[in-house]
Amino acid sequence: MSKEKIIINFKKAHSLTAKIIKMMEEGHYCIDMMHQNMATIGILKSAHQMLMENHLNTCFKSAMSSKNEKKKQEMINEILKVTNLFNK
Q1: How far is CA 2 from the centre of its chain?
Q2: CA-to-CA distance for 40 and 12, rounded, in angstroms?
Q3: What pLDDT is stored for residue 88 in this prediction?
Q4: Cα distances (angstroms) measured from residue 84 to each of 22, 29, 35, 42, 87
Q5: I want to staple 23 with a disulfide (CB 3.0 to 4.6 A). Which of 28, 45, 50, 84 is the partner?
Q6: Secondary structure (DSSP) of 14-82
Q7: Domains in the chain, please, with CATH?
Q8: What is the pLDDT of residues 61-86, one digit of tens each?
Q9: Cα 63 to Cα 59: distance, rounded to the nearest angstrom
């Protein structure tokens, strides 16, 4: 997964968030703002997935191939923590 694709998703989310703020300030229809919000959430979820895939294929893979059991467990705990936070 390329870093550029992840950055593009965050820039899109940033742009949509700015649009939602402007819509709120201008008193737009709530449902229209909720649609934009859902689009933002979708883009952020996609960026999260890309970050996770990148992490698993780089840092995590490297840690799992090491002989350091403490490092392996720390990496597993990190993945579990971020997964639990994402699912809240």
Answers
A1: 14
A2: 8
A3: 80
A4: 32, 34, 26, 18, 5
A5: 28
A6: HHHHHHHHHHHHHT--HHHHHHHHHHHHHHHHHHHHHHHHHHIIIIIHHHHHSS-HHHHHHHHHHHHHH
A7: 3-86 (1.20.58.1000)
A8: 999 999 999 999 999 999 999 998 88
A9: 6
Collapsing DSSP to helix, strand or coil, 10 comes out as helix
Amino acid of residue 8: I
Arithmetic mean of pLDDT, 11-26: 98
> What percent of the chain has a predicted confidence (pLDDT) above 90?
90
Q: How many other CB atoms are there within 10 angstroms of residue 48's CB atom?
A: 14
CA distance 64 to 56: 10
Token couple for 40? 């933002």
